[in-house]
């Protein structure tokens, strides 16, 4: 009976470890490097330091992000379908900032209004096979910890 109880308690732990390793070790999550810090999207809600949400209602937004067709007009541009990203540009380290996209605002976290016109806190240009416009917006807002824009450094994929 004791063996069965031990087995019953170990199996869920092993399953959780396999699940976590698959998520954390995955390189398929969008990520950008800003200087010594990298910012990565994660689907593990509890590991993220910044939880962003999106809204279609401008009055609920705390951060406005405009999608632009001109990379020169953008504060942040993602173009990754060329020769490839820089090697080792997005290594996970203690300075990595994890960002998750929540369905609803979490604890006063940023609420992003994504549009193609009007005033904006950030302007982004996205031409990518691996980043969506929402993911790029979440990364750029998460890079500032969810606050309104500060001058950004050059970022690499």
Automatic annotation (TrEMBL):
The keyword Signal applies. Residues 1-20 form the signal peptide. This is Uncharacterized protein. Keywords: Signal. It comes from Bradyrhizobium barranii subsp. barranii.
């Amino acid at each position: 009976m004791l063996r069965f109880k031990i087995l019953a308690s170990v199996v869920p732990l092993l399953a959780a470890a396999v699940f976590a390793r698959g998520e954390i070790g995955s390189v398929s999550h969008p990520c950008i490097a800003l200087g010594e810090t990298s910012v990565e999207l994660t689907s593990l809600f509890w590991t993220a330091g910044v939880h962003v949400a999106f809204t279609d209602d401008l009055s609920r937004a705390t951060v406005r992000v405009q999608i632009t067709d001109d990379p020169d007009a953008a504060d942040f541009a993602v173009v990754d379908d060329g020769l490839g990203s820089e090697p080792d540009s997005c290594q996970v380290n203690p300075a990595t900032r994890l960002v998750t996209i929540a369905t609803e605002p979490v604890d006063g976290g940023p609420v992003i209004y994504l549009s193609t016109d009007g005033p904006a806190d950030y302007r982004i240009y996205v031409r990518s096979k691996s980043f969506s416009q929402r993911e790029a917006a979440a990364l750029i807002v998460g890079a500032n910890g969810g606050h309104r824009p500060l001058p950004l450094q050059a970022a690499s994929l």
